[in-house]
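quick q for whoever's on today - can somebody do inverse folding on this one?? i tried earlier but teh output was garbage lol. tokens:
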């Protein structure tokens, strides 16, 4: 049974996730940084640093949202970054952000379904995703699509929440995710389900070695897993 934001609705997970992000788009960046105490910014910088040795020139950022990770990827000096997302609300916020920063010539944001990407095979030097693959309706299919559009020898970098397993971080994490985060998220975003869905989706997500196993099943090689901040998030790397 897939974890979905709105349990009283019959729409599939993909539709519900798009609706959820449309609902919270205006508050998403603020809540992201506030609820993580800014640590999410450090995590993104780490993920970019791990991709740096590959010097990718054409990058696809999946589930790009408002474009924060795409903007961070500019530090690699690529020729172009394409950001894809299923939430038009998030993309609208992202485009406004790019316009203000004068970055439209380097980053292009467009609608894109992770399980049916509108790009040719072997197109991108690198494919990235930050806090997005957890929301895929079909994780294996989404990762297979990321593999398909990646050039042979290209690199995939996925940054995603994971579950701490050691005392006391495990207990603190569970308390914060189940009690504090949903309450603050509900008050600020005005969406009752969005920040209840987040901890539920993290709990259901196959993190750590389980995620690497799926990486390998869809065809990625040289897979590695970097645990961050006592296991609260992880970076997963592979090559095609």
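ok took a stab at it. sequence:
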């Amino acid at each position: 049974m897939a974890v979905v934001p709105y349990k009283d609705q019959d729409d599939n997970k993909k539709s519900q996730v798009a609706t959820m992000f449309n609902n919270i788009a205006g508050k998403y960046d603020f809540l992201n940084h506030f609820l993580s105490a800014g640590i999410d910014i450090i995590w993104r910088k780490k993920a970019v640093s791990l991709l740096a040795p590959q010097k990718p020139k054409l990058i696809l950022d999946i589930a790009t949202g408002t474009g924060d990770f795409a903007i961070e990827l500019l530090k690699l000096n690529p020729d172009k970054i394409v950001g894809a997302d299923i939430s038009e609300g998030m993309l609208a916020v992202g485009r406004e952000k790019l316009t203000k920063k004068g970055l439209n010539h380097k980053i292009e944001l467009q609608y894109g379904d992770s399980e049916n990407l509108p790009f040719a095979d072997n197109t991108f030097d690198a494919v990235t995703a930050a806090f997005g693959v957890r929301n895929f309706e079909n994780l294996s299919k989404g990762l297979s699509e990321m593999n398909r559009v990646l050039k042979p020898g290209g690199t995939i970098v996925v940054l995603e929440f994971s579950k701490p397993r050691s005392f006391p971080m495990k207990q603190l994490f569970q308390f914060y995710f189940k009690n504090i985060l949903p309450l603050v998220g509900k008050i600020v975003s005005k969406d009752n389900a969005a920040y209840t869905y987040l901890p539920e989706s993290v709990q259901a997500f196959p993190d750590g070695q389980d995620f690497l196993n799926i990486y390998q099943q869809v065809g990625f090689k040289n897979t590695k897993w970097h645990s961050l901040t006592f296991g609260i998030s992880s970076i997963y790397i592979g090559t095609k």
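fwiw The mean pLDDT is 95. also The domain at 13-239 is CATH 3.40.50.150 (Rossmann fold). so keep that in mind when u check it
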